[in-house]
Amino acid sequence: MIKKVIATGAIAGVMMSSPLVGEAALGDHTLKQGMWDKDVHQLQQTLKDKGYFHYTETTGYYGDITTASVKDFQKRNGLKVDGIAGKRTAEALLQSSLGKSNILKHGNKGYAVSGLQSELKDQGFYSYTVDGIYGPITVNAVKAFQKAKGITVDGLTGPQTIKALYGENGVRVKTEVQSSAPAQKTSAPVKAASADQKQGKTVSVEATAYTADCDGCSGITANGTNLKTNPNVKVIAVDPDVIPLNSQVYVEGYGYAVAADKGGAIQGNRIDVFYPSKQKATEWGRKNVKVTILD
Question: Residue ranges of the Peptidoglycan binding-like domain (predicted)?
Answer without folding.
Answer: 38-93, 110-165
